Amino acid sequence: MPNTFGPHAAMETNDLVAFVIFWLAYLPLLLLKPESYRIPSIISAVLVLIATLAVFTWAFVKQGSGGSLFSNPECMLTFWPKTVYGIGNLQGSQLAWVMVRCINSGIGGWAGGVNFSRYVVHPGDQVYGQIFSIPQYLLGSNILGIVTTSCAQGFYPNEPLLWKPNDLLQAIQRNEVPVTRAAVFFAAFAFFLSQRSVTIRFRKGQHMLVVARVVIGGMDLAALCPRYIDIRRGSLIIAVIGICINPWKIMNTASSFISAISGYTVFLGPLTGIMIADYHLLRYRRIKLSHLFLPQTRRDYWFWHGLNWRAHIAWVLGVWASLPGFCASATPTSVIISTAWVYVLYSLSGG
To answer: Are 156 and 162 in contact (CB under 8 A)?
Structure first.
C-alpha cells in the first residue's frame, strides 16, 4: 500500500488502516460486561503462549545460541546506544540503580491487575494470582522476549533491535522465504487476540491490553459520576479519548512520554500506603459497609464534605519527594538533577 502521509505524521497509510480496523473490531466488546471477558481471555492467553513459544524456539534454533546479548553484550551498544535511562555501558552502582528502577517499573505494571480483582468468586482468590501467577508470567515472557530479540540481531544484522513483536514479524517477512507468510499470519493473529483481552510482555516494555485498559478507565469514570456514567458509557468515552491523544505519535516519537508513563507508580505508591495504613492500622481491618453508601455527616467515612483532607495532605507529602526525578525522566533535556535515588525507589519511598 503506497504511503500518502508526510514524514512528520509518525505513521504510514497502512498503519492508519490497521488502526481503524482494530479500533472498530474491539469497540463492540466494550458493550459486554467485564465478567464476559473471562473465557475469551483464557482462549487468547493459550493461543498467544503457543505463538510466543513458537517464535522463541524458531529464533533460538536458527541462531544456535542466545545471541549477542549473552555472547558479546558490548556490541548491543552499537545498535542501541545510551537509551537505557540515558546511560550507555552500565557498570557498578549505575547498573544496580537501573535494575532497581526496572523492578519499580514492573511493580507499576503489576499494580494494574487489581482492577479486575473485584470479580473474584471468593475473598482472597486474587492473592494467589498476584503472588504466584503474575511474577512467573512476567518474568518468563520478558526472558523469552529478550532472548528472541538477541537471537534476531544475530541472524538479521542489518535490522535494528527487534523488541516489538510486529517489527520482528515484518523482518521475518522481508528476510525469509515466502512460505513463512502463513506462520507470520498465525503468529500476528495470536498477538492481535492478546491485544483484545490479555497482556503480553514480549519485549522491553509492554503492550497495553486495549479492552481491559479501556474498561478500567470506564470503571473510574463510573465511580466519579455514577449518576450519569456507567461502565459501558465510560469505556466508550475512554475509547474516543484514545483516538484524540494520537497514540501513534506516542508510540513512535515520544520516548519521554513513554518514560513518564512507566513512572506513574510515583502517584500510586503514596496512595497505596495511605490505604494500607487506613485499613490495617487505623481501622484494624473493620469497615462498616452501610456507612460507605450514606452521604451523611454522622457517618464514619463522610469526613469533611465527603473529603478526607488528611489523606490528601499525606498523598502530597508522599509524592513531592519523587517529583524532581519524575520530571527529569520525562524531560531529561529540560530538567537536570544530580541524583534520582528517591525517584528510583518511588514504589517504596512513596508508600
So the answer is: yes
State CA 12 to chain mean position distance: 24
According to DSSP H, which parts of the chain are helical?
A: 13-26, 38-63, 68-71, 92-111, 125-128, 134-155, 165-175, 180-197, 210-224, 231-244, 247-252, 255-262, 265-276, 309-320, 323-330, 341-344, 346-349
Which among 268, 290, 270 is positioned nearest to 278, based on CA atoms?
Answer: 270
Instruction: Report pLDDT digits (tens) over 153-197.
Output: 888 888 887 888 888 888 998 888 888 888 999 988 888 777 765
Grid cell for residue 259: 518514560
Q: Which range is least confidently modeled, 4-8, 17-21, 252-256?
A: 252-256
Q: Find the mean pLDDT for residues 18-44.
A: 78
pTM score of the predicted model? 0.67
Question: 87 and 98 in contact (C-beta within 8 Å)?
Answer: yes
Mean pLDDT of 291-302: 79
Dump the DSSP string for 104-139: HHHHHHHHGGGGGGGG-SSTTHHHHIIIIIHHHHHH
Residues 6 or more apart whose CB falls under 8 angstroms from that of 234 comprise: 217, 218, 219, 220, 221, 222
**In terms of Cα–Cα distance, which of 76, 48, 42, 43 is closest to 144?**
48
Q: 266: helix, coil or strand?
A: helix
Q: How far from 141 is each of 48, 199, 210, CA to CA, in Å?
A: 11, 10, 19
Q: What are phi and psi of 275, to 5 degrees?
A: -65, -40
Which of 276, 343, 342 has its CA nearest to residue 314?
276
pLDDT value for 334: 66
Burial of 263 (0-12, 13-18, 19+ CB in 10 A): buried
Q: How far apart are CA 216 and CA 287, in angstroms?
A: 25
Residue 148 cell numbers, joined? 528472541
Residue 107's closest CA among 132, 84, 138? Answer: 138
